[in-house]
Amino acid sequence: MAEIIEIENLNIPELFPYVQTSEVQLLRMFEPENGVFIAESPKVIRTALDCGYEPLSMLIERKYITGQASNLIERCGDIPVYTAPSEVLTELTGFKLTLGALCVMRRKDLPEPEKILASAKRIAVLEDVMNQTNVGAIFRSAAALGFDAVVLTSASSDPLYRRSIRVSMGTVFRIPWTYLQQPAPDYVSSLRALGFSTAAMALRKDTVSIGDKRLKAENKLAVILGTEGEGLREETIDSCDYTIKIPMAYGVDSLNVAAASAVAFWELGKGCE
User: Fold this and answer.
1) pTM of the model
2) Mean pLDDT by 10 residues, the chain (273 residues)
3) Among the residues of 145-256, which ranges form H helices?
């Protein structure tokens, strides 16, 4: 049974994760063991639990203890649950809790890329995508539109950072993901060795339309997306089998990377139905 603990301030070591704004410190909290992340809102916490993540503690607005968070408390078992009224928590944390619940959870070991890509047919590759909102939105689109996995270069933002988790609506827990072990553009040849054709989303004169029949006919396809603004490295684009674009109207040259990913996943995901 969970231990319900009333708090008046956050000046105790156990509450450090809730007031720590450095995601890197949470990531490294238990080094060399896995660190922690913050799951926010009952829906996201529930998704993380469904996917086997281990809860360590919760911070819940008092009125939700016997309300919509009560079943979460039961599921989390013997962990401390810190609580206070909404106005106290807002004053203590500096922001209003999303639906009144936060949960500190332990990270899992990340799988080797070969393990999650062995049976995948459609994957998203994030090259140096650093904006947490974009990362979360791309994960949500990849999961919703039937992609099998997401892999990221080491310079990309961590999908388990709080904003990315929130924007993804917890889909970062559902879809397999990991980091690539090779830097750009070397990882392209590694993907090809695993049987993937590679398609770089970029604005160049040698692009093919996203509706090109050859793309849909590929048995295994990796859709590669670059960071906002700079886009993909030229070396990466040169290494890929295709350079693809989304046809635009009204003189618009491109979409935000998150919006572009949704269009690409919808169009190119049809090939793996």
Assistant:
1) 0.91
2) 82 82 87 91 94 94 82 91 81 62 94 96 97 97 96 96 94 97 94 97 86 93 91 94 92 89 90 46
3) 162-168, 186-193, 213-217, 234-239
